[in-house]
């Protein structure tokens, strides 16, 4: 049978269209009913400074400050996008299922493959819509800075409609911004794909055993399949090197501008433990930042400096890291000479270092963090002094770089997805020394200048 005839008879059918419309309509109705709760969830995730945390209090606060419109802000474009997204997914899945059907029926493996393909098609087609929806929903949200910082008190996106948002982002940020969350979305495709496969397999098993598929049974199968999918895909969606085994205690550079030394040292601590010391040490050990400042030969000291240049110098001189316990405690000053000659005890050096610009390909940066480990990011931290908590998702420009931090992971299950950033301003900063920056928009210039360190073990 010719391919065109197969497509005409199986892909473009009334049954496939009914499945797609039913799926889209069901999702749209459900979202319309529960949209206020979704708005509250998004606000609580972003506005951690709010005193009111309950659903009722949040509803009251939003309606008092923004009116009834506040709890339904962005509903229209969300419904449009949700309709398109579910229509594309269900049509793609059931259409492909019909095309590849055989006399032997359907199998779990085939369902997984087809669900994944349908999910990928859905992501590619509808990602720009969800980028606009996320920004529209947060119009009116409070930024996570100090109360005196009036300039950053509200999001500056005022899109009138879904189409207006698409056009505005395209004009002001370029076409790549519309697909900025493609990789996180593609990774998340695996979750519903596995869930659907497991659900279909369990449903077929029930049919084989003669168990009627009642509402309660269907609910139970759905819950079981979701749990299995989450367990299997969670490691891909959340990478977090803050685990106490990998991460040393948060450091505080104080008035010394030696972030150029702190960030690389902290990356090397995680690398050292993760790739070698875990066999003999139960937790990561701190390396000496003070030794790096005093004894490496890098002249920056407490005056600030370029991380890339500093790492090139350390490689050229084969600098040997030492454990913090073997040298002087950190004193926030650069001594004129190395204060103590010690035998390099950490058994690690920087074998190779490269500096890359990931501003146009943050998806590649996420992949590197997942498969390689923490990285050093040179950032514009001008507004960070007012950071109180939550996720920075706007009003943090990619200006001149004035600070260096560690990207210690990411979370793609959150809305919006975010980087986990380790700072060197003490535990009183942010979330016990960490902060969170939304992925996909190069906020604070976080992806402009990434230093990738490759350790060499002695």
Automatic annotation (TrEMBL):
SMART domains: Pept_C1
GO molecular function ontology, one term from the record: coenzyme A transmembrane transporter activity
Record's keyword terms, sorted: Membrane, Peroxisome, Repeat, Transmembrane, Transmembrane helix, Transport
Gene Ontology biological process terms from the UniProt entry: proteolysis
GO cellular component, one term: peroxisomal membrane
Solcar repeat coordinates: 14-99, 106-205
Highest taxon, organism lineage: Eukaryota
Compartments, as annotated in UniProt: Peroxisome membrane
Membrane topology: Multi-pass membrane protein
Pfam families found in the cross-reference section: Mito_carr (PF00153), Peptidase_C1 (PF00112)
Domain Peptidase C1A papain C-terminal: residue ranges: 235-454
SUPFAM superfamilies: Cysteine proteinases, Mitochondrial carrier
Transmembrane annotation, as ranges: 16-35, 112-132
Entry similarity comment: Belongs to the mitochondrial carrier (TC 2.A.29) family.
Protein's recorded name: Peptidase C1A papain C-terminal domain-containing protein
């Amino acid at each position: 049978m010719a391919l065109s005839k197969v497509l005409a008879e199986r892909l473009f059918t009334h049954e496939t269209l009914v499945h797609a419309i039913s799926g889209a309509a069901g999702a749209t109705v459900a979202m319309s009913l529960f949209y206020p709760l979704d708005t509250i969830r998004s606000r609580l995730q972003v506005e951690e400074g709010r005193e009111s945390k309950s659903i009722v209090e949040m509803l009251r606060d939003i309606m008092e400050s923004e009116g009834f419109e506040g709890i339904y802000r962005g509903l229209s474009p969300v419904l449009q996008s949700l309709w398109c997204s579910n229509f594309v997914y269900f049509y793609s899945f059931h259409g492909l299922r019909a095309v590849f059907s055989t006399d032997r029926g359907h199998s779990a493996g085939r369902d997984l493959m087809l669900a994944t393909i349908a999910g990928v098609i859905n992501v590619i087609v509808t990602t720009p819509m969800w980028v606009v929806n996320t920004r529209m929903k947060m119009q009116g949200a409070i930024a996570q800075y100090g109360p005196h910082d009036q300039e950053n008190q509200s999001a500056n996106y005022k899109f009138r409609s879904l189409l207006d948002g698409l056009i505005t982002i395209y004009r002001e940020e370029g076409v790549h911004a519309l697909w900025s969350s493609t990789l996180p979305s593609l990774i998340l495709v695996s979750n519903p794909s596995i869930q659907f496969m497991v659900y279909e397999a369990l449903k077929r098993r029930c049919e084989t055993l003669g168990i009627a598929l009642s509402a309660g049974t269907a609910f139970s199968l759905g819950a079981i399949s979701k749990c299995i999918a989450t367990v299997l895909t969670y490691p891909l969606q959340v990478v977090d090197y803050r685990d106490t085994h990998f991460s040393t205690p948060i450091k505080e550079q104080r008035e010394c501008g030696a972030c150029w030394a702190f960030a690389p040292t902290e990356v090397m601590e995680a690398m050292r433990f993760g790739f070698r010391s875990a066999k003999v040490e139960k937790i990561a050990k701190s390396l000496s930042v003070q030794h790096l400042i005093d004894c490496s030969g890098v002249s920056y000291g407490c005056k600030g400096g370029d991380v890339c240049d500093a790492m090139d110098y350390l490689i050229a001189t084969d600098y040997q890291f030492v454990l913090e316990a073997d040298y002087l405690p950190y004193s926030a000053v650069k001594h004129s000479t190395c204060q103590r000659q010690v035998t390099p005890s950490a058994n690690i050096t920087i074998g190779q270092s490269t500096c890359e610009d990931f501003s146009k390909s943050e998806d590649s940066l996420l992949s590197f963090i997942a498969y390689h480990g923490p990285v050093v990011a040179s950032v514009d931290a001008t507004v960070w002094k007012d950071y109180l908590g939550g996720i920075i998702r706007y009003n943090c420009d990619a200006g001149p770089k004035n600070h260096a931090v560690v990207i210690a992971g990411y979370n793609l299950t959150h809305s919006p997805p975010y980087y986990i950033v380790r700072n060197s301003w003490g535990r009183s900063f942010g979330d016990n020394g960490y902060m969170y920056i939304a992925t996909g928009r190069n906020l604070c210039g976080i992806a402009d200048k990434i230093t990738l360190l490759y350790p060499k073990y002695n």
